[in-house]
Amino acid sequence: MEGKTILITGTAGFIGHNLSKRLLQSVKDCIIVGIDNMNDYYDVRLKEERLKELSASENFIFIKGSIADKSLIEKIFREYHPHVVVNLAAQAGVRYSITNPDAYIESNLIGFYNILEACRHYGVEHLVYASSSSVYGSNKKVPYSTDDKVDNPVSLYAATKKSNELMAHAYSKLYNIPSTGLRFFTVYGPAGRPDMAYFGFTNKMREGKKIQIFNYGNCKRDFTYIDDIVEGVIRVMQHAPEKQDGEDGLPIPPYKIYNIGNNHPENLLDFVTILQEELVRAGVLLSDYDFEAHKELVSMQPGDVPVTYADTASLERDFAFRPSTTLRDGLRRFAQWYKEFYMV
């Protein structure tokens, strides 16, 4: 990727920022063109801090705008001719898709279509895009394999991510665009998304409020630390699916899907227990914090699934990579960051 121009959408987001930062640090002479609409779905100060850090590099170009703006996307591709595109811009969140569906159609469907169209017209070497573990929906078989059928989404968010995979496949087939979809599993870490459960739990514990743990604490999540996600994305970026023709002389779609998860689901109650221990250790919570008095076990909520569990065999086979950060290490880094950022 040396000397190449890389377009990263959602660059002020959690994954987008960490990926951009790592590329600017480790890839010689690469130019990162970032786009983000800087919406207020969560605390904009976090996005501004991330952007400020990236803007310190002269190899970073930022454009404020939406990927749903077709003329803007066309202008960016015409002006910068990115070699590689990483589409991370999306309206995130399962529960928010129940109350504000319009945002998901605009960003996740129309926005993604605009990216595909631009890749088609400007000969991009590789399109990498964020999918989600939520596409597995109500599947009962675990661990989730990319060979499994994913036809039963339980939220609009999941349906839009599955749609992205289908659209990318069609464009790969029709226009021979190498594309790789990455199904991320519950990403967490410092400067993460405040709408994620671990962040919300932390805020409530600090405020002395009750924290609700769904499915009576029996949910299991394949929590994946942000540095592991970024390492996986970078390895995938460098190896576009090969272009080749089938027996009929037509292109075989240069199209791949991978899970990026920890391959080790954790019980939600255990997760929250470790989180509060690390918050006490970091000084975010007082040493006599009474966890038992503040936790409330409640039933499942709409759009949620009881377990996420990634089969990462194909990621290991093709890229010799598997996430390795332990839950305690990851939550310790989050707790330390939280203390510093919010000056607890």
Tell me about this structure:
This protein is an alpha/beta fold and 344 residues long. It has one domain (5-190, 223-263, 308-324): Rossmann fold (3-Layer(aba) Sandwich). Helix content is 42%, strand content 17%. It has helices spanning 14-26, 44-55, 70-80, 96-99, 101-121, 156-175, 197-206, 226-237, 268-282, 291-294, 313-319, 327-341, and strands at residues 5-9, 31-36, 60-64, 84-87, 126-132, 179-184, 187-188, 211-213, 220-221, 224-225, 244-245, 251-252, 255-260, 266-267, 295-297. The strands form 5 sheets. Strands 3-2-1-4-5-6-13 form a 7-stranded parallel beta sheet, sandwiched between helices. A two-stranded parallel sheet has the order 7-10. Strands 8-15 form a two-stranded parallel sheet. β1, α1 and β2 form a beta-alpha-beta unit. α1 (14-26) crosses α8 (226-237) and α9 packs across α12 (327-341). The radius of gyration is 20 Å and the shape is globular. The N and C termini lie far apart (40 Å).
